[in-house]
Design brief:
GO terms for molecular function: ATP binding; protein serine/threonine kinase activity. There is one protein chain. The protein is built from 10 helices and 12 strands. By secondary structure, it is an alpha+beta fold. The relative contact order is 0.10.
Length: 334
């Protein structure tokens, strides 16, 4: 970011335990600077709220926008160095479909408060992340049914981009990373509607021998959690695949798509979605009969992929390689 956040950048004091490459690329930013660029964390700058914190739009001295995620004080029990280490792992996730981390703030504010008629020293962590700003907000703001909103080409490109981002974290890292909270609100869109995965706050980096495990910690969002997690607390890469399937169903059929699917047979749902899209395609005079046929084939293929992703049996659920290959095969069939 070429020190985009300004001259209040605070270089680390050095620690060979961390990779110098990623340490140099992440800015350690003062809380004071974050207050300045967000107008004191003003409500007018607020972009969204989540269980882990509030996101604000910051404007740097260079005139560039940055997203500032101010985390709740109790969001982590990691100390400063552990927190840095996690961030350096995330900083390695350089991919066109993953939101960039530019910098972070981890400061301890010490104040005195009265307790049992005595003044005690209280330490309050002030933690924040500086992230790439995406001008078109989240996918959640653009979800609509088959008859309105985003056109099919845009929806298809979003599905492709989300899949590429997942492929990168599942396959291209030394230790696979699972998102574990994939949903439209965590898929941000650039000016050109390029999707980028965001909010890896719930992610866990597993070693190869830990690709499946059980956990009692709450992960994900209701409606996007797979049945094996809800019933047994089981976590694997198939967690993300199930969430991907729900997202794709929303993209092909709107907010109520998953509920519609739950109330009918798979083939009936696929035919309904395809019929609805065919009506929209035919309304556009520029679409020839051949183009309508190609689009309808894409709709059917993407809907089938989505339904396979939400299979209750994890063994029947595809991995991200299969999803990508099915999308590629469809492209080659055009």
């Amino acid at each position: 970011m070429d020190n985009m956040l300004g001259d209040l950048y605070k270089p680390d004091d050095g620690d060979d335990f961390y990779s110098k490459k990623y340490r140099d690329e992440l800015e350690n930013v003062s809380f004071q600077l974050l207050e300045e660029i967000t107008d004191g964390f003003s409500e007018s700058r607020e972009l969204g709220r989540g269980s882990f914190g509030v996101v604000y739009r910051g404007l740097t001295k260079n005139g560039d926008y940055v997203a500032v995620k101010k985390l709740h004080a109790n969001v982590t029990d990691l100390n400063h160095k552990q927190f840095q280490n996690e961030l350096y792992n995330l900083a390695k996730l350089k991919h066109e479909n993953i939101v960039r981390i530019y910098g972070y703030c981890y400061e301890i504010k010490k104040t005195f408060m009265e307790h049992d008629r005595r003044k005690i020293l209280v330490e309050e962590p002030r933690i924040a992340l500086c992230l790439e700003y995406l001008h078109n907000g989240s996918l959640q703001d653009h979800i609509s049914d088959e008859f309105s909103g985003l056109d099919w080409d845009t929806r298809y490109r979003i599905m492709e981009g989300v899949c590429r981002g997942l492929y990168h974290i599942h396959r291209n890292l030394k230790k696979p990373l699972y998102h574990l909270d994939l949903k439209p609100a965590n898929i941000l869109l650039s000016k050109t509607m390029q999707p980028k995965l965001a909010d890896f706050g719930l992610s866990r980096i597993f070693r190869n021998e830990e690709l499946t495990r059980t956990t009692k910690s709450p992960l994900g969002t209701l409606g996007y959690q797979p049945p094996e997690y809800i019933e047994r607390g089981e976590v694997s890469e198939k967690f993300d695949i199930f969430s991907l399937g729900v997202v794709m169903i929303h993209l092909v059929s709107g907010r109520g798509g998953f509920e519609r699917y739950a109330c009918m047979h798979s083939e009936e749902f696929i035919n309904q979605v395809k019929t609805n899209w065919r009506k929209r395609f035919k309304q556009l005079q520029r679409n020839s009969l051949r183009k309508v046929k190609v689009y309808c084939h894409e709709v059917e293929t993407c809907t089938r992929i989505a339904l396979n992703c939400v299979e209750k049996d994890t063994q029947k659920r595809p991995d991200i390689d299969m999803v990508i290959n099915n999308l590629k095969d469809q492209y080659l069939d055009k």
